[in-house]
Amino acid sequence: MKKEEKGKKKEEERKGKKDRRRKRRGRRKKGKKGEEEEEKEEEQKRMKGKRGKNRKNRKKRKKEKEEKGRERRERGEEKREEKERERRGMKRRRGRRGRKGKKGRRGREEERKKGKKRK
Question: First vs last Cα of the chain: how many Å apart?
Fold first, then answer.
């Protein structure tokens, strides 16, 4: 019994010493506030302000991108419509001659032969 009690006392003493050491370390840290730590705190404050700015800028950029995309899509649609109009115009312009030319070389030769016969 006596040995166990002695052991417990020693353990408690050891724990007390450790706690005291920890407290001392903490005090030192709290007391020492150098220039470096002050600079760090200032920088953190600055970064907090920047965080909000970054978010706002990101939103702005996103809106701009969406607008650009919309404009690009509209331009693409306009171009497509223009091409279709041109195609329709070409079909109208082609007429008979266009169809004859479409047959290729053979068709043209036949037309030539017909012309010779008429002469």
Answer: 142
